[in-house]
């Protein structure tokens, strides 16, 4: 689902099965000690994905604890991102020498609850969702907007250590696939996120915009951003003018 949206240097591990046994370290169990069973299972599933990805990168298994604002604390030399929603969990990791940051998100392919779009979207974004919904009503564009904003925040936070509100980035979604979403066809495209607050400095450039990829497939939406160290075109951070 997410592997096709990221550079080949990124290791992606995914699962659609919640673990029956909580294969967690004692420190991790403490984090979810008071959580409901479903939350504990999702917490375990996404960490199992992350540990498999770490193994592919040559790192031994270790506790993966949430840090500031819940961001995962990766081993030294690793950057990554995790996501989970109903029936799906994924982790994307790479070496810190390859990328500056990663942000991934997955959501169920269904419309947002009433009132949520108005809470998260700028006026231009609401107009975009309305236009895309008229052109391709088979896709839940409001949920895709939310998914892209979540991926933006996950790519932003490791670079800044600061909060980024929904209103602090303007998302522009561009479909690439000419076909509607069906049981056998995947809709995909790109998106940009223009930062409306001062962006992070990466590779000597201040980032004014993130660029990402997205897809809709098998009942899920996914969005991903890979931020390189140096200025380059493609799926990366775009420096401000």
UniProtKB/TrEMBL annotation:
Keyword Magnesium set for record: yes
What sections of the protein cross the membrane? none
Note the coiled coil stretches, chain numbering. none
What is the species listed in this Swiss-Prot or TrEMBL entry?
A: Streptomyces fodineus
Q: Name one GO biological process term.
A: enterobactin biosynthetic process
> Is the keyword Transferase assigned to this protein?
yes
Entry-linked InterPro entries: 4-PPantetheinyl_Trfase_dom (IPR008278), 4-PPantetheinyl_Trfase_dom_sf (IPR037143), 4PPT_N (IPR041354), Enbac_synth_compD-like (IPR003542)
Q: Which segments constitute the 4'-phosphopantetheinyl transferase N-terminal domain?
A: 28-93
- Binding of Mg(2+): at which residues? 105-107
Q: Which GO terms describe its cellular component?
A: enterobactin synthetase complex; plasma membrane
Residues engaged in binding CoA: 39, 47, 83-84, 105, 150, 154, 164
Keywords, ordered alphabetically: Magnesium, Metal-binding, Transferase
Query: Which residue range or ranges hold the 4'-phosphopantetheinyl transferase domain?
Result: 101-177
Provide the protein name: 4'-phosphopantetheinyl transferase
Per its UniProt record, the required cofactor names are:
Mg(2+)
Enumerate the Pfam families for this protein.
Answer: 4PPT_N, ACPS
* Any one Gene Ontology molecular-function term assigned to this protein's record: magnesium ion binding
């Amino acid at each position: 689902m997410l592997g096709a949206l990221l550079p080949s240097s990124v290791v992606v591990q995914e699962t659609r099965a919640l673990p029956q046994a909580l294969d967690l370290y004692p420190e991790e169990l403490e984090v979810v000690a008071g959580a409901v069973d479903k939350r504990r299972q999702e917490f375990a599933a996404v960490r199992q994905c992350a540990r498999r990805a770490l193994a592919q990168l040559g790192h031994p298994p270790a506790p993966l604890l949430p840090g500031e604002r819940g961001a995962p604390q990766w081993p030294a030399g690793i950057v990554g991102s995790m996501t989970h929603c109903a029936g799906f969990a994924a982790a994307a990791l790479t070496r810190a020498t390859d990328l500056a940051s990663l942000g991934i998100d997955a959501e169920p392919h269904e419309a947002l609850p009433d009132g949520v779009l108005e809470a998260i979207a700028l006026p231009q974004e609401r107009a975009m969702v309305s236009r895309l919904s008229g052109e391709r009503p088979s896709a839940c564009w409001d949920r895709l907007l939310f998914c892209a904003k979540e991926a933006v925040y996950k790519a932003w936070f490791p670079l800044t250590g600061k909060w980024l509100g929904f209103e602090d980035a303007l998302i522009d979604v561009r479909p690439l696939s000419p076909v509607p979403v069906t049981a056998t066809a995947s809709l995909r495209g790109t998106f940009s996120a223009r930062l409306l607050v001062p962006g992070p400095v990466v590779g000597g450039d201040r980032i004014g915009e993130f660029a990402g990829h997205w897809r809709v497939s098998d009942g899920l939406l996914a969005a991903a951003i890979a931020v390189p160290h140096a200025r380059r075109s493609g799926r990366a951070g775009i420096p401000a003018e």
